[in-house]
Amino acid sequence: MIKVLFFAQIRELVDCAEMEVTGPFESVNALRAELAAKGGKWALALDSDKLLVAVDQDICSLDSPVADGVEVAFFPPVTGG
Amino acid sequence: MSADSIQIQTEDFDLATEYAALGQSHSTGAIVTFIGKVRDFNQGDNVSGLTLEHYPGMTEKSLAKILVEAETRWSIQGVKVIHRIGELALGDQIVFVGVASMHRGDAFQACEFIMDYLKTQAPFWKKEATEDGSHWVDARETDTTAADRWK
To answer: Are B71 and B123 in contact (CB under 8 A)?
Structure first.
């Protein structure tokens, strides 16, 4: 299983902080596309060109592979400090 | 960087306490500290407070990477980052960065580097409360530009 996390406005839009999906995926983009296919708010939240993604808590590109057992997070650009 | 160099907490922090902890070594000649606060005017008018969300685990990991990078670039004797999360009111302290070094140049630069990288890489998100409701703060291009100059 793959643990998928959502933060900030992405989390609010999809109304979900955490879920599990069956993997692996060829890329983060493939996982993103599967989730976006749920339609509605999911497509809106995950189609953003400003979307950031982390695999096992390291920011990575949409091309990165998603092995079974990893943690994937989708979030907007960070605004701390 | 030591085990307690990074703290993520809802509680407030005290500058005098942090300053005293950073200045323990007699060879320390410079301590630079930075505190970020909640201000009343940002992307929305009349901000009355904000909520800070973060990604537990990744936050600590990304801050540790930033501190390690700072230590490879400058001569640092002590470093501390405290970032608050949860509900914050107008005027509240949000973030503390303190750097102790033998000389001021290292301390000034390392402190600014850590803040610039924290703002663009550490997974925190601010939601502002205003008279017209609440909204997520947009990332600023100027913050990215500030971080890019250290490359």
So the answer is: no
